[in-house]
Structure formats: C-alpha cells, structure tokens
Amino acid sequence: MREARIALRPYLDTIAGYCDTLSNEELTDIIIGLAKDVPTSGRVEFLKKMESCLPGRRSAVMPEAGSVEQILGDVEALKESIEERISSIEDGTYWDEPSDWSDNEYYDDDPDYIGEDQVQELESFFGDAESLFMNDRLKDARRVYGPCSA
What we know:
This protein is an all-alpha fold and 150 residues long. Helix content is 62%, strand content 0%. It has six helices and no strands. The protein is flat, with a radius of gyration of 20 Å.
C-alpha cells in the first residue's frame, strides 16, 4: 500500500495553523514531547536542528553538570541506546537500517545485543569510576559504578 503524501505548502500551512492556536508553554510541551521520541543516536542532530532554528542562531542555555553528573548522564544515554538496539533486534527493525549494523557493515543474522562501540563506551565508564576511586572520591566512584554494573 502506498503512503499518503502532502505537498510542502499545505503541510507548512497546517503546522503554522496548529502553532497559531498554542501558547508558548504548549509549544514548549510539544517540542519536548517530540524530543523525547528521538532515539539517543539522533539527539545531537535534533539539538543542532533546533539550534539552527533559533533567532540569531544563539545557542541554548544548557545547565552546567559536574563531572560525575555528566558521567551519569552519559551512562543513562548509553543504557537507552543499548535498550533501543535490543528492542530493534527483537522486533526485527535492526535489519531494516544498515547503519544499525556493526561497523564493518556486514549483515549479521545473530547480532550481539550490545554493539562493540557500546562495550567500549561502557568500559570507559568503568575507567572513570576507577579514576574517581584512585583519587579518593569513593562516594562519586560508587555513584558511577552502580549504574554501570546494573
């Protein structure tokens, strides 16, 4: 069955019509809702697109995160990425997108649930936890190690 298509002008007019009826808060909620649906692998690109649309091309104000908070955020992003990969393998969509395949881009009938790049990233987080431990930051090391070992 063929997908329905719409020309650019009616599409943009429809979007503008939706936006005209919404408050700033409602628009923010919609954009955040759309952002939540972006897979981890597409978030940087989504942010770049958002930034390119801002008046004067100003950068968004991002809260400063401490090094431990940044590591924990990166661990969470990796966890989401692994969950997305597992889900795509289990539901069969993994094989629909060659960019999801391993780095050497060969078809794998039985791919690992965790990709090589994800394993390397996870190993780096253990290295971060070890570094914190070696620098006598035991509480911070435990905070990083906990999610990495779960």
